[in-house]
Amino acid sequence: MNAERAREFLLSLPHVVETQQWGGILFWVGDQAIGGRTCAMMNPDPGTGMPITWPAGQERFNELLELDGIVPAPYMARNFWVSAERLDAFRDREWQEQLTAAHQLTYAKLAPKTRSILAMTKAEQKKVIAERRKLIAAKAAAKKQTKT
Q: Is the pLDDT reported for residue 46 higher than 80?
């Protein structure tokens, strides 16, 4: 699997959105503004760092580390995340299984309020997310104003 196919597959999973942050591409289950959580991270520059990182869960963490090309994720291993040193660590179907499992694991950890928003229609979700972003921006502006 190449990076573009992995990206397309992740975006095909329910409620997954993509953002760019920390020099990488993050895939969220649910929007960050409503309490979504990251289910995978991809490095857009294959020459630096691990190409993909995802939550393996406590049950599968050690099992995956026994595989060639899979290592504990830097800074995230304590939360049972792993990284692939290269994208050919798995066949396409195996990648899909890994990323689907990461999505399911992440979805299960969402707060009930976040899951209830994700159960809304797309139009309702969009409205809630827009309102939440306005609130976050207003709080950030107020915080910035009190610092000056």
A: no
